[in-house]
Amino acid sequence: MDQFRIIETSEEELKEVPELSGIATKVTKLGDKLRLEFSTRDALFFQLRLYTLMDITPQMREAVNKRLEILQSTLKGIELAREGARGFKVIYSLQEGLEEEEVLPKIAEAMDSPPVQTAIAELLGIKPDSVESTDKELNKVLETGTHLQPNGLLKTIAQHTGRDTRKPTLFYSEAEELADNNRREIITRKSGELMLYLVKSYQDQEEEWMRIDNLAKLARETGLSSAQEVKNLLEYLGGYVHPFLERKVGGGIKVEYRQLLEVNVHYSSRVESKYDTSAPEVRGALNFLKNEPVDFIECKPCSKILDQLSGKSGRKDLGSRVIYNRILGELPALSDGAYKLLMYAISNKEKTQAIGEDKLLPKIGYDDEVVYKEGAKRIRDRVLKSLQELQDQGFLESYSYDPERRIYSLTKSEKTAPRKRAKP
Are residues 186 and 88 in the same domain? Predict the structure, then answer.
């Protein structure tokens, strides 16, 4: 793996990263700028270190450093290649002595984070929005007030968040489209975070349908890489049915497969005129429209979510939970395990909760097959590590595990369980 990348920076910035400034294979001075040549691996690490010098929140800086440490300790080499207008693929090799089965989940988590994807996109010249501007915009939108999140959505995210083997888009192969395979047991991390944000935004307006005119702005507000990624995720949430969990009055849980989001995608008359052509490459609206610019998008949460938000689900404690707006801005920095545990903890009304291990694990995505395959001790260690992460980040006041009774106990903090609604 001998790809090389060029990065331009200033002498001041270079002084801030002495551990990386000496690994450039070539340095050329161009006026007040320095032109550095790195291997692709080192160029990615250098770019991530530069992000930590920007005016970003401590949580975002910690998240970037965490991803950087994971990649530095595991990757020996990296190759990057563009796929389409804004896509890319990564080919990597591991450090000596590492087992792919052990480190691949960590690498995948790091690669899937917005800072790393932004750095890769910049190295490939895809020109995404910067981490700095994204972070400032997101925190400006989310810094004050509270909102409601439906209990069923929180439980769905806790139990079904995972990694889809395909990118979240409606536009798969012709064979898949013909098979009408429209059910998804997994909701991707980015889809879940975007859905939470849209539920919050829907409550900030008064129309039946929430109109989105600027996908690029929504991408900046939610930390996504591009308008196209927002479009794909909206179509994914609206185009497929996902399991939606609802607690029944009198006890029990009902699982419904439904669209989490109703979505209408509007295109201009210019796009319509192009589609009306008889050109042979136009083979159906979906395949044609996937790369066409959107005029605007309308969306609204499904009826079950709206019922839970409005208190029409049967009992008040079965409907929705009060959440501080700012929590949505802190979710991307959490590990997958901490993210799912937080969603589960918030979905329960009680501030202090106790639950047996055999009941907790399925609620955060560990079914019997996964426990058997990975081992109960490894999963227990993972859960305890996630609980510690939530406590370190201020989401929990305390937690404990009783090994004899195999019971987890946790107490949510005021940050996670507001006593009452606050106005923005």
Answer: no
